[in-house]
Amino acid sequence: LGIKHTLNLHGTKIDTYGSEERIRASAVMDAIFNASDVAHTMQSFPVFLKWNKRLFEELLVAYVNGRSEGMDPRCGWYENQILFLDMYVIPLSRRLDDCGVFGAFGARFVNLCCENRKLWMEKGKEITKNMIESVGDIAPSS
Questions:
Q1: pTM score over 0.90
Q2: Alpha-carbon Rg for the chain in angstroms
Q3: Is 120 exposed, middle or buried (0-12, 13-18, 19+ CB in 10 A)?
């Protein structure tokens, strides 16, 4: 769940949280904060696509204008979305479900993430191709 005790530089134990309840509350808040950044992946496929396209365009403009040290998002977008869902979003949605604070919605987050992955596997190559074609040749802004 979290770090219950830590040591300072002198090796003395520090009680970080004190109780199991505070550790759980911290773990839940951490999961919620992480989920807030990727909430579109835990909603319907049209919502996922809307924000996926906006992120793609934002990253592309930053790349073209030299404001990003990352890769050109046109390279590997389809595959990277699958990896992101598999390695980050789906495990995060399972943590949200496991914590139980969302009741039945916790399982819904997991199901929507898995459904979005399935639909992305089926349609994502074509969607990515269309996104790349729709931006055309973006010139750097002056």
A1: no
A2: 19
A3: buried
